Amino acid sequence: MAQIFEGSTKVDNYTHVAQLAQVQAAGSLVVHKQKQTIALFYSNGRVYAIDNRCPHMGFPLKGSTCKDGIVTCPWHYARFDLASGGTFDSWADDVPCFPVEIRDGEVWVNLAPVVDLHTHHRQRLQDGLEQNISLVIAKSTITLLDIGVNPSEPFLMGLRFGTRYNKAGWSTGLTIHTCMMNLLPYLDAQDKACALFHGLSAVANDSAGAPPEFVVHPLPNSTVDFATLKSWFRQFR
Predict the structure, then answer these.
(1) Are 222 and 84 in contact, with CB atoms under 8 Å apart?
(2) pLDDT tens across 83-119, in order?
(3) Which of 90, 128, 163, 228 would staple 137 via disulfide (CB 3.0–4.6 Å)?
(4) Which fold would CATH assign to domain 3-115?
(5) Domain coordinates of the chain in residue numbers?
(6) Quick check: pTM over 0.90?
């Protein structure tokens, strides 16, 4: 059996993780390689590899149900496309997925990083503002500061969003947002993300329900056939 699943990375960092027969027999399997915990799933004749940590709240995906290529977390029921890692629930996030090769009955997974954290969490912050999801705003703000982004960057994102979409023009949310930014020089490092979050979430709350309706992003790097879409429609209707 030869299977090659091409992901979005071109870096070859394949490592052996399991025997194919093991994954087939178990249906799902958790392995630990290179300081990462990987969840393997066998679905529709293929092996898929995703990070075992649910991006919603960080709980393990071990024990998730898998049907028609959709993994459902047992903790808060966030749903993910196995082929791309894309989430069906905007309050969660995409789960990192890894390219898989089957070589002589052995499962090999490419563990090279596939996501640019800066780009990804800028987009997640924008999503949080558009959908008014405080958890998404909080996680993206914390991550951006943790990777060394200047606090002015998320501040300006919130400022642009509020001035463009706030139905009342300049109002309470933008005032709170500006006050929080002005406080940053006087705060300890661990408190800066909290201040930015309060400002950004106030902006999102002020703009909630106002036009336009924002487009939900498609699944990343995934081409879904009609038969699969039909089965998904039955699940989500």
Answers:
(1) yes
(2) 999 999 999 999 999 999 999 999 999 998 777 899 9
(3) 128
(4) Rieske Iron-sulfur Protein (2.102.10)
(5) 3-115, 117-207
(6) no
